[in-house]
Write a structure and sequence with these properties.
mainly beta; disordered N terminus; globular; 4-stranded mixed sheet
């Protein structure tokens, strides 16, 4: 289940309600295991994380702030749950690796924040 608009080889644009974890411990779009494009998010947009997998998952940055907090995090979301990914609306343009904090070795991907169009 993908929430967002597919843009072809350049990436998958997440609308403000925009990313889901699917079955088999895989983020769609943006999962490293799929070898596909990153999730694209416009600067200033808050991402919504939806878990459609029976296992609990999160959408969490790999990097941390200087004080040790995640740059962005949904918290743990159970099957059928949806939570905002706190902090995505504050990210500067650039690439941000993300993971599931419950399954960090299995579930990883890339979020690309694009500059807000003028």
């Amino acid at each position: 289940m993908v929430l967002g608009s597919l843009l072809g080889p350049a990436g998958a644009l997440a609308e403000p309600g925009g990313v889901a974890a699917t079955h088999f411990y895989t983020f769609v779009p943006g999962d490293d295991d799929l070898g596909g494009p990153p999730i694209l998010l416009i600067e200033g947009t808050e991402l919504q994380y939806v878990n459609a997998d029976p296992a609990a998952h999160s959408f969490t940055s790999v990097a941390r702030t200087p004080t040790g907090e995640w740059l962005f995090d949904s918290g743990v979301v159970l099957l059928g749950g949806a939570e905002p990914v706190e902090g995505t609306d504050e990210l500067a343009p650039g690439d941000y690796p993300f993971m599931c904090s419950v399954h960090p070795a299995l579930m990883r991907g890339m979020l690309r924040v694009l500059a807000r169009p003028v």
